[in-house]
Amino acid sequence: MKFGGTSLADVDRIREVARRVKACVDEGNEVAVVVSAMAGTTDQLAKWTSDTALLHDAREYDVVVSAGEQITAGLLALALQDSGVSARSWLAWQIPILSDAVHGNARIEEINCDDIERRFDEGQVAVVAGFQGKGEDGRITTLGRGGSDTSAVALAAALGAARCDIYTDVEGIFTADPRIVAKARKLDRITYEEMLEMASQGARVLQTRSVSLAMNHQVRVQVLSSFSNSMGTLVVDEDEVVEKQVVSGIAYSRDEAKITLVRVADRPGVAAAIFGPLADANINVDIIVQSVSEDGRSTDVTFTVKEADFERAVSVVKTAKRDVGFDRLISDSDVAKVSVIGVGMRSHAGVAQKMFSALAEKGINIHAISTSEIKVSVLISEEYTELALRSLHTAYGLDAA
Amino acid sequence: MKFGGTSLADVDRIREVARRVKACVDEGNEVAVVVSAMAGTTDQLAKWTSDTALLHDAREYDVVVSAGEQITAGLLALALQDSGVSARSWLAWQIPILSDAVHGNARIEEINCDDIERRFDEGQVAVVAGFQGKGEDGRITTLGRGGSDTSAVALAAALGAARCDIYTDVEGIFTADPRIVAKARKLDRITYEEMLEMASQGARVLQTRSVSLAMNHQVRVQVLSSFSNSMGTLVVDEDEVVEKQVVSGIAYSRDEAKITLVRVADRPGVAAAIFGPLADANINVDIIVQSVSEDGRSTDVTFTVKEADFERAVSVVKTAKRDVGFDRLISDSDVAKVSVIGVGMRSHAGVAQKMFSALAEKGINIHAISTSEIKVSVLISEEYTELALRSLHTAYGLDAA
Asked: Which CATH architecture has domain B2-169?
């Protein structure tokens, strides 16, 4: 069981979580609980680090921000003991959860569960501080924002757990963001591949890395709410999804910016001249579209980056102008990416075509298109985001009855 | 250098502490810094633990409350780096600072300074989280309230430090509490023995245990303010104090309660019958006075305990009434203990007599007396505390010019 920050926001909520864990123990389960920090704590700690120093030593950042999970781990162990459940807290260095030494964004390398499993035999619940690891350098590491999801999935894999329940403040995974699409439905099941696309296409319920970890280790993940008692969404292998939808869900991201280079010389090596410097600057490029050359000598190249990288990307490309050779640079950060996702696409033609017609019907212009085996993404003007989501939700027959 | 919670209360104060440490480094010193939690943090964390659970597992309490020092250690390391000083934070388990497993009140057993000393050679400052240890059980321990003083002295001893500077919110050790005695003077030097009596007689500047540790390992401790630049008070060996005062200071404690057993049977074994059960109940008895038996058959016994133990002590003694045999129990918690302290007493007669006359002159009645080689303590009615302190301060010639 993994509980996020809103589920552990104060002492009352922590005691409520303890009741939920106790109920699971009383059903005869051996339980490990992974906890996030209280809502707001990590932000406060991170702000103190940035207020303290302009220079940013990620090793010290990790020492400071990992304190939040240490506090909730101890408190939840106390709350469980108070409700009659044997429990103890575990910090990453005590288990240990070993990671690489990439501070602030470390990867788990190995978890030794021997002590925890021995205590399972004595009926003890393990309360594990999420988000943290012990680095190869012997220091505390953290796994990146949302890293407690990864802690939970990695621990579930190491323990060979029957299931990894991720308790959050939403009821599960929906066909679309219910704050925008009123007719969105909660999915009972979704495949790892779909969830991975949903997470990386903007759905913020699970950290992307935790989903790929679950897929690689075949960990059955359930996303559910700690504020209700309803079933959530199971994230499972494709074999376990009986009725495969052509389209399972629609994701969006407003965190996009578009850059177009007009009349780029159409010669070998020009793509490397554009995208090499961007890669060197650690800027991820998402969609790339190269228009067909009309005169055989020049072409237009459009690509997208995250909004946070936008200004830096423009400056990098301008610096490379002499090597690339282009007439003009047009940029636009008022764009959004909308994606339809579903494993059923593999065996169904016409999915993309339906998307293009539905958007055309509403007069929504498509700036760029990107496809994968189980996803079609389009870039549109940001102001059309809600309209596009609702239209596509209806067009693919996803609306709740 | 050790900094307390008020010296690290917020990011601005932490940056100010970094400037102070940098100045010390720039003078060519190798520096280890021990930090407390931000003022108020430990209280907040302790409150969360008591709000969460009625049962109190000290091991989980330690996990929660030790987080405060982890945060300030990381932040101070960042602040030092930001001011151009090489620094890293150290948690107890990383050094390690090994302790016994008496959670909530652990004792340091061993500190391995090899890593820290190696980094001194590279010019790096060690920022050490105070108050915490790694227990024999492999878990985090804490050293009791004020335990960061003990961390600092123990680390200074292990490093063979030239000095241990304890930065606090007062200017040093005074001849008496300056909030009560306006003419109190800051002492330039005080002996370990005197400081130990001052600390255990109510002066709250240093944790008692840290003073006895300093005495045992001959660590030169300086108590000084982080809010000014004046010299503090050096706590040193008696040999280093050239001009020994007969009386160096006057301490007081309002945290006292008196219990008198009237007409106790005057026979062998009666003291054991009274104080055995109190010891079994873990109640510390301070002053004990037995009046001279008038009839050769019965006597009155008076003793004092801390106010927190008062009601429990009364109940223990009442339960033991049959074994002890006494007429009546009289109790009074409105009492205070006033002590005059000075190593010079060893070679000067008449110190106690001067105390008794000075108090008699002001009409202050003495309920009980207790003496040691370098201290005379009297128990008086609490309402006379201020008057007694000021009169004694003048009588012993301690008033500032």
From this structure: 3-Layer(aba) Sandwich (3.40)
